[in-house]
Design a protein that fits this description.
With 282 residues, the protein is an alpha/beta fold. Helices cover 40% and strands 24% of the residues. Strand 5, helix 6 and strand 6 form a beta-alpha-beta unit. The longest helix has 16 residues. It starts with a strand and ends in a 7-residue tail after the last strand.
């Protein structure tokens, strides 16, 4: 349930749930509005994505870190030759890294037509659709990833239920999403209250309008259990400086704040490994 306003924008605000601490954008954006943003040329050419696509070694590092986290729940060597779905795949960098490192059969899904066209040109099986609208053959996966994605969806419960239905019983979902309890976001909110969210460009980088749901580790775990997932693990991780597309001052500031997170045993990103129960009824 929405509580007090955490961040106020011109046409919407982020409300903090008094019970679980998660933040929700109200009035809620429509699925059409969200897709329009993510399927735009401006969004596709954002410096963040240009940096991410160009950093092949960074993709490999992130891929290895991902598989290291799921290794506690599954023998990753058993995934060789298995289909892996990456929701919000962009041009397929993570999938290509997973194919090279772990021998998976890559399948991508994204609402951005330009990104899907590039992924297909790179030889990937990719679909231009949301998970709710994906064709029937996009199902039966032993592993699904949703990285930097759940904060964008209009209804996280509906999203997670749809992913659940497309997993093989015993299959895993790996989720990464911002941790709104991190020092970086707490400091950003406090600074915004003082400055009135100025300079606007800085605060829109920290709280972009397309991010309409922010979780805490506890609130993400709770919604996952409500949908029917077993929670294998929920933790946090820092964001490496190499993954931040910003000025030197901004990068340095974020890194200082992340040092405070490390002292608290926390991180700016939530990492969750969820499993569809083997004895589940669809």
């Amino acid at each position: 349930m929405a509580g007090r306003i955490a961040v106020r924008w011109r046409f919407s605000s982020l409300y903090m749930c008094e019970e679980c601490g998660s933040w929700t954008s109200l009035p809620r954006a429509s699925a059409f509005a969200q897709t329009s943003i993510h399927d735009s040329q401006e969004y596709y050419k954002h410096p963040y994505f240009d940096l991410r696509r160009a950093a092949v070694e960074s993709q490999r590092r992130r891929c290895k870190e991902l598989f290291a986290r799921i290794a506690a729940a599954i023998d990753t060597s058993s995934l060789r030759g298995q289909r892996m779905l990456d929701i919000g795949c962009d041009t397929g960098g993570l999938l290509k890294a997973a194919q090279a490192e772990y021998g998976i059969m890559p399948v991508g899904l994204d609402v951005a037509a330009r990104a899907v066209e590039v992924a297909k040109a790179n030889g990937l099986e990719a679909y231009h659709a949301s998970i709710e609208e994906a064709p029937a053959q996009v199902a039966g996966f032993r592993i699904v990833t949703a990285i930097d994605l759940v904060e964008h969806v209009v209804d996280p419960r509906v999203f997670l239920r749809e992913v659940w239905s497309r997993l093989h019983p015993g299959g895993l979902l790996y989720v990464e999403t911002p941790n709104i309890r991190s020092v970086v976001y707490r400091f950003g909110r406090a600074l915004g209250l003082v400055t009135g969210n100025r300079p606007l460009a800085l605060f829109e980088r920290l709280f972009p309008p397309e991010h309409i749901q922010y979780f805490t580790p506890r609130s993400l775990e709770r919604v996952a259990r409500e949908v029917g997932f077993e929670v294998v693990s929920v933790g946090t991780r820092p964001l490496p400086a190499s993954d931040i597309s910003a000025s030197f001052f901004a990068v340095a500031s974020v890194q200082v704040l992340q040092m405070l997170d490390r002292l608290k045993g926390s991180g700016i990103l939530i990492c969750a490994v969820l499993r569809r129960p083997r004895e589940s009824i669809a």
